[in-house]
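Chain A, query sequence.
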Amino acid sequence: MRQRLGQVVLEDGTAVAYASVGSGRPLVYVMGWLTHLRLGWELPAERALYEALAQGCRLVRYDRAGCGLSAAVDRPASLAFELEQLGAVAASVGEPFDLMGASMGAPVAVAWAAAHPETVRRLVLYGGWARGPELSPPGVQESVLGLVEAHWGLGSDVLTDIFAPDADRATRVEQARYQRECSSAATARELLALSYQLDVSDLLARVKAPTLVVHRTGDRAAPGAQAEALAAGIDGAQLTLLPGRSHLPYAGDRDELVRVVRRFLGLPVARRRLEGLTARQQEVAALVAQGLTNREIATRLHIDERSAEGHVERIRLRLGFRSRAQIAAWHSAHEGSK
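Chain A, predicted structure.
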């Protein structure tokens, strides 16, 4: 797929860059804290998420002011400003759309759906929250904000560990660098502070669109209680909890997240293929399920022990698991469902 770039201009002259990929019914995606349309498209895992979501529909996402391809502005971050930017992007779509908000984008999507119910067909909230002040204790929030402001390099490293705790070191380094390239330290701090301030709990009852709340059970950035609050506050909302600790939607078990979202939106869902594992990884997962050690797996497959260890680690990261026991249980459950 190729993404098509464009921009919308707000009444005050603020230019907001957006990208469109795929064709068909529109799905507007309100992304999380810091984004970069071009650099994100160049990251294989992130691009794979967008391409999978865009199969059979037109995925539209955008960089909020001060991030990525959208220029910095003097206006302070606020929910009103967020909705103004989303409104301009929505106007460019020109028809009712499905709306998905991830992380910080989830409360923004809630506020939009509550205020403009006629524009939203279905609503998906991933990794979001109803009450930002409850994401972590006030002291922790102030410490993180101070670190981002004082040392953006170290701050991005710490936040990457929170957002993608199961990623390998190389991936974490790449993700931290990506955050720093998305915005300045000042913008990053301001938007993170807004995340902690966003409280849409009083708007939930006004959401009329069919809603899916999907959340990973071990998410360290957004407690599961916040997903439960979103689902409880929106009439008829469906809550789906997925295993894993990654807050980033494209980290961990990305394929299962895509399947859940596409099924809810009424889009075709690809046949399950052992979560996209390679043929070799499927072999290794089966041997893990049999209780073999890395050395025994290496002997069985005629590879060295280090390679066997690498295969197990990649399987664990791919599925968003923390242990071999989870790999074994997952494989046994999958085989039993055939």
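The chain has two domains: 4-134+198-265, 274-336. Residues 298 and 308 are 5 Å apart (CA to CA).
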